[in-house]
Amino acid sequence: xxxxxxxxxxxxxxxxxxxxxxxxxxxxxxxxxxxxxxxxxxxxxxxxxxxxxxxxxxxxxxxxxxxxxxxxxxxxxxxxxxxxxxxxxxxxxxxxxxxxxxxxxxxxxxxxxxxxxxxxxxxxxxxxxxxxxxxxxxxxxxxxxxxxxxxxxxxxxxxxxxxxxxxxxxxxxxxxxxxxxxxxxxxxxxxxxxxxxxxxxxxxxxxxxxxxxxxxxxxxxxxxxxxxxxxxxxxxxxxxxxxxxxxxxxxxxxxxxxxxxxxxxxxxxxxxxxxxxxxxxxxxxxxxxxxxxxxxxxxxx
Length: 301
Fold this sequence. Notes:
By secondary structure, the chain is α/β, with parallel strands linked by helices. Helices cover 38% and strands 21% of the residues. The chain has helices at 2-18, 21-28, 32-46, 62-84, 102-119, 172-177, 228-236, 246-254, 284-293; strands at 51-53, 58-60, 94-100, 123-129, 143-147, 155-159, 166-170, 194-195, 206-210, 213-217, 224-225, 242-245, 259-261, 272-277. The strands form five sheets. A five-stranded mixed sheet has the order 4-3-5-14-6, covered by helices on one side. The chain has a three-stranded antiparallel sheet with strand order 12-7-13. The longest helix is centred in the N-terminal third of the chain and has 23 residues, at 62-84. The radius of gyration is 24 Å and the shape is elongated. The model has no long low-confidence stretch (mean pLDDT 87).
């Protein structure tokens, strides 16, 4: 009875977190019908409904939410302790889940992690490419990647790259038709390529600073994206002025495909950090990933 209850409770936690019997069944390696029967049996024994089911979604009831909050982290702790047992093995093992943006995954994370994965074949890394601010605790990620000034204070933050600078760019074709802006305020007269935040839906306000004085500008234009690669492509197509970290435009600036302006208004700021909950008990595999990604400033000779 105890084993069946534990299995049914794990089934409930997985369905409640995934919001889907299909995804939960895939994670647990069981059929949807078996999973549905397990949840129904648990609800019958407890004599209370735990999940609200519709044709499109599954969500916890008030009682289900209370149960999820009470036991969900217990299963997480058990999983962490089981992963920690890999310390007793010759080599670390386990899966590390990281949520991050597309560019930082390609430019920084993959090059740094590739040698680690070659050295330790039992370590697996799952990347969730997202442009919104994911709740890494609720969504059960081991870590996330963000700019330093956007990370909650209760998280441990590890630098994974140098300071960054923003860049204002447009194609030569665009500037052939429009005078280059001399100050950020001039941008309001230009067609600018906007970024919409997936999390809260607002448009990004372009942030500048010169001699310690900040200046924010709300720009407008004909195209809006929620991903940086498409902003770069739109700038190359001559659709307007774009504003992203300079590393996103670097090869195109070098080859003259994009022209940079307002450099003296773009000051360095804290770059990308890997962040994770301070209460997290790191597994050997996770510790190896953190060490592989950690950035140290080059020592001056």
